[in-house]
Design brief:
This protein is mainly alpha-helical. It folds into 2 domains: 19-125, Orthogonal Bundle (Cytochrome Bc1 Complex, Chain D, domain 2), CATH 1.10.760; 137-217, Cytochrome c-like domain (Cytochrome Bc1 Complex, Chain D, domain 2, Orthogonal Bundle). Helices cover 44% and strands 2% of the residues. The protein contains 11 helices and 2 strands. It has helices at residues 19-32, 45-48, 53-56, 79-91, 97-104, 108-120, 137-146, 148-152, 172-183, 195-201, 206-217; strands at 62-63, 69-70. The chain has a two-stranded antiparallel sheet with strand order 1-2. The chain is globular, with a radius of gyration of 17 Å. Mean pLDDT is 83; it is low at 1-41.
Length: 232
């Protein structure tokens, strides 16, 4: 599940031709309709996350749409936010061809189960980030301008509502891509429809968004990539 991307060859040695992920998604979607998906016990989650682990369980895995960036860490993320994001991909409020293909194959129950799984995934493992630097005056001014703490909470890791994401420790290049997507809202192939975020980021330059993304990435947080056994 990616935040979970259409990939291109020759990038970092881990990227594959852009059609392969979609083919894999369709194959796995077909598998997901089999008997294993009827099992809603914890063991039944294996088939439901089969489309997620190929990107989100490989440390450093990169996507190339709409530009090269690491796929986001989702282990340790709020379940309510993950569910909202998957629903937005399914409905087209978030534009992303691979993620839309993934989300379209999921039922509402699948989405809830996947979200709960990743919220607890790797709970006892350390999170990412942790450079612990104080914000520069420029970054502090940007945080104040965007009122980021009001929603994403202390250290950008304690959202006031679980429907908001934890940002601390997330990959800077992913955060930058996501912020730019909110700037274009529902336009083009990459926009994200979210009234609050769109209003917040439209007054920022791309250079300012990059500064915010870099700062958030360095904070200690709960997010992490937990490799599956076959990828370790």
């Amino acid at each position: 599940m990616k935040t979970l991307s259409v990939l291109s060859p020759g990038l970092s040695g881990r990227l594959v031709p852009h059609l392969r992920p979609l083919i894999g998604i369709l194959m796995l979607a077909g598998m997901a309709t089999g008997p294993a998906m009827a099992d809603d016990t914890p063991k039944g989650i294996t088939s439901k996350v089969a489309m997620c682990i190929g990107c989100h369980s490989i440390p450093g895995y990169q996507a190339s749409f709409p530009e090269v960036h690491k796929v986001p860490m989702i282990s340790g993320q709020n379940a309510k936010y993950i569910a909202a994001a998957l629903t937005a991909y399914r409905q087209g409020d978030r534009k992303h061809p691979t993620m839309k293909g993934v989300a379209a194959s999921l039922t509402d129950q699948d989405i809830q189960d996947i979200a709960a799984y990743y919220e607890a995934h790797g709970k006892d493992l350390p999170g990412a980030g942790g450079r612990g630097r104080a914000p520069s005056q420029q970054v502090q001014a940007l945080l104040t301008k965007g009122n980021c703490i009001a929603c994403h909470g202390e250290g950008l890791n304690k959202p006031i509502d679980a429907s908001y994401p934890k940002l601390a420790g997330q990959h800077a290049d992913y955060l930058y891509v996501a912020l730019k997507a909110y700037q274009v809202s529902g336009k083009g192939p990459i926009g994200r429809n979210n009234a609050i975020m769109s209003a917040q980021v439209k007054s920022f330059t791309q250079a300012e968004l990059k500064l915010l993304a870099d700062y958030a990435s360095g904070l200690q947080g709960d997010l992490k990539t937990v490799p599956q056994a076959r990828f370790r």
